[in-house]
Amino acid sequence: MVVYAGQGDPRRSMALLWRAGPAAETRPGPKPGLSVDEIVDAAIAIADADGMAALSMRRVGERLGRSGMALYTYVPGKNELVDLMYDRALASLPASYDLSDGWRAAVSAWSREVRAFYLRHPWALRLSQARPVLGPNEFTLLESLAAILFETGLPPEVLRGTVSLLTDFVRGSAATVAETRQASSETGVPDEEWWRARAAILTEVAPGFASRYPMLSRIDSEPPRPDEKPVAYLERKSGHAFEEGLTVILDGIEAAISRLP
Known about the structure:
With 261 residues, the protein is mainly α.
């Protein structure tokens, strides 16, 4: 399920994101007043535990001991709430990175931190990047990476492509792991059962698989460890692939730097 940001009222959404103007003010209710941050934190906790599909104003209200309707005093609706959730969750990431060990170490730290963020909040991967939230912490995420990459001396047009490459690579790697973790619960079929059935059938319908696809067999030859669960095996392989892919990207950046006049 893809979720598009910015579907609510643009003025109220942006005012809440940036905490600017009357729309962002906390208003008193019949009981001691809530705050927008309390509502957003409760929504994040629900999405972390049960996924984006479980999120509703009613569920958030119940978690806070209020009715769903009481929340509309603070947040216009679920669409605006999702935008606020994503941007507030991003606030957990560092706003800047130490460059004392050079840009390469800093980019590696940024990439690992962002990947870990998505694995802590897999619901955030549901938000399409086609329409960004445009909140302060989303801009800070990109600003922190741009600040590192400007140390390379590469021109802005190259840096734009590099920022895009890194964000897509990190997000894609996290999505693979998140979907692996969610597969059993969302399909109702345990991973061991799914892989066992298809591995046996593939041996029957595709004899000589290794000779038919020799290059794939060469790069995917590492077997699972004894008693290693399929999910753990796939996560381990994904982690290795992430680190190797990141190294290739960093090497590519260094090659681009070497071509500078």
